[in-house]
Amino acid sequence: MEVSGLLKVARAARVFLDGACLLKSMPEIGRPMEDDTRRREQLPSFGAGTFVLRYMWDKQDTVVIIRVWHSKEIRI
Fold first, then answer.
1. Would you place residue 69 in the very low, low, confident or very high pLDDT band (cuts 50, 70, 90)?
2. What's the Rg (C-alpha) of the chain?
3. What is the pTM assigned to this prediction?
């Protein structure tokens, strides 16, 4: 992988980790999903879109990140 590619990967990892740390300190920041599953989504900006961090949060302040993807990703 070229240096520019590695720098992009490092930036993406930093955005993801920063988003995860924010959830640890402020788990209510994500928007609730509209399906009664108690799942939430946080959308940290990255490049021309955002990452989507889907997670669950219980009242004991345990946050479990269920899935992560980029909003520009083609999902089937």
1. confident
2. 14
3. 0.77
Task: Pull the structure tokens for residue 17.
Answer: 């980790």
For 12-67, write each residue's pLDDT tens digit: 888 888 888 888 889 999 999 999 888 999 988 887 788 889 999 887 888 999 99
Nearest alpha-carbon partner for 37 in 76, 64, 8, 6? 64
The two three-digit tokens of residue 8, written as one number: 């992009």
Biggest CA-to-CA distance, the chain: 44
d(CA 13, CA 69): 12
CB of 71 within 8 A of CB of 53? no
User: Do 41 and 66 form a contact (C-beta atoms < 8 A)?
Assistant: no
Q: Is 28 helix (H, G, I), strand (E, B) or coil?
A: helix
